Batch of 2 targets.
Target 1
Amino acid sequence: MSGRRSLSVAQARRLALRAQGLDRARPTGRVDRRHVRRVVDQLGLIQIDSVNVMARTQYVTLFSRLGPYDADLLDRVAYEDHHAFEYWAHVASVVAARFQPHLRWRMRDDHAWGSLARVGVEHPDLVAALEQEILRNGPLSAGELDEGNRRTGPWWGWGDTKRALEHLFWAGRVGALRRGNFERVYCAPDHAVPREVLEHPDPDPEESHRVLLRHAARIHGVGTARDLADVWRQPIRLARRVLDDLVAEGSLEAVEVEGWKDPAYLSPEVTLPRRTEACALISPFDSAMWERDRIERLFDFHYRIEIYVPKPKRIHGYYVLPFLLGDTYVARVDLKADRAGRRLLVQSAHAEHDLDARGTDQVEVAERLHAELVTMAGWLGLDDVHVVGPGDLAPALSAVTGD
């Protein structure tokens, strides 16, 4: 016997949903900047992505927790208020500004993509010229920099320019903002991150890893070393060592979770709710869905993104959102915003195979899902929800929508 406290999978699920802010009722009044800042502060980082078949993931992540809101609020909080900044954290993410000092160890490391790491060595004149141009005349896009300086500076074409800019961005030597069409523009660091944050002394890298892992445990509730290291993409061997130190000092608790092969780490900042009454569509890039193996262990829910799968080989669809009801995932829907027709299209709808065991049935799932889809359609400025594709849940959902 290890002597560690043991948690059931049901308890671990509820902890995870509490940690993600998905266990509580959404605001009933008007959602404003304060609500958005609260979600940014709780999650710490929100993955961003350019896929816009329904809505970009960063906006859906907030919708799942806040309900209908002005999506521009996230851009204002991040790119105008500078309460958050864009950086490679989990992947491309909007990150709460307070974490910038604790990501400097990454900024000093070579980029994970070899071509970006090499550009600083192979084309130092290009990198220096781009940095000077941005600091003097930014914000500027990669296209503007490439086009405006192709004949006068040490530019070698779009590919090299873009790689050099991403090298500078990774190193924290330039920051990034977004224009209205989601175009990334590069700027001086203090245009993206508050000056007082930039002037914060460099933390010891060991302390930064401790901060990041404590936060990873805070937004997961409970997780294995691999689960927690994945949040900020920290080296797993280092993470295991630091987690043991955090347990020894009492910042985290080592526990066992029913059915998990590896030991887990519990955040004392997350309280265990008696029950969870969640009802939300979840983006596949939401931090609640990170580390797919963890999602299977927690929810018995197998999910794979099929965007890059050839259409004939897709099982569930192109952009599939899991539907969370109570403390389980009960269905998944492939959604597309038909903006010209002002319709939210359900291109497929599938129920999970064991709804009875999950304490519900297809009719209840269809009714709750339809209500959420109607709310989402209104948020997107669409008039109707239409079921236009296959799936075992499609008939029940069609009966509710009247299709």
Target 2
Amino acid sequence: MGFKMGIVGLPNVGKSTLFNALTRTAAAQAANFPFCTIEPNVGEVAVPDARLDKLAEIAGSKQIIPTRMTFVDIAGLVKGASKGEGLGNQFLANIRETDAIAHVLRCFEDSDVTHVEGRVDPVADAETIDTELMLADLESIEKRRAGLVRKIKGNDKDAIQQDRLLALAQAAIEDGQPARTVKIDEDDAKAWRMLQLLTTKPVLYVCNVGESEAAEGNALSAKVAEMAAAQGNSAVIISAQIEEEISQLEADEAEMFLTEMGLDEAGLDRLIRAGYELLHLETYFTVGPKEARAWTIKQGTSAPKAAGVIHGDFEKGFIRAETIAYDDFVNLGGEGPAKEAGKMRSEGKSYTVKDGDVLHFLFNT
């Protein structure tokens, strides 16, 4: 399981430059990693994880298969999108299908690049998009609640629950707050997700800064970070210009370029990691002579559910999971030595998979 992140932003903020860098980087990885461009505005990129390379080295794996992340370049956002301005309707439909929103904000000054509003203010830009999403949600909520009236009169339990949750979302939005600020009981969590409201999506603010500010950011990105923290969202600093240059270099050249720029890693790696943290995702591994592979799961996933990510039959016929912690696998030199040292555990259906676990599933066919 990977996850899908929609890249949004006003015109001329660097959104398409960033997406193009992502897809070019992914294309360069295609010789070693699974990659596909699903549509012109959708691309998949390997999730960087040094642990996978280490495991493959120890196990002598012939193939390395990382987990993947899907990026969607969502076009057409302008003020009035909620009313169909620009490509508003398509924009709203595309964003509903994503797990999270990467909101690219212009945090650089450049007189040659015109801002759609005639000023550089990333916090105001964020508010523009938030407002459009809230207006779209509000219109959707009002229509849906009107359509539930007859079922509620008939005492339909699902309709009553849905209306109650929509009312909570409506109250928050009318108070100027996105629906994700609503506190939902665990019993309502599934029904809440099924509403697919735009403003329930977690947001990662991507501060697009100039080349010289890529390491530390600037005053504009600091304001975004402050806003994100107040909202309970995340922010990451990236120079789309640098990412575009890196995407056209060979791996060794890219590493030298990053060093010259005073950067430890590419901004895209930070973006992916921040997305994982935002969605509370983690990684487990399956390792053998044939392949070393990474799998993405939600934090708190049980062993049978984790097995089901590989194949539904693994979950249905789950017997147990043979588990080795990543550090034990590496420090002891592989599966055999870890087993001899008593570091391989046999875990049942109630086991919660931990980030970095090296797993082997046993199941009935």
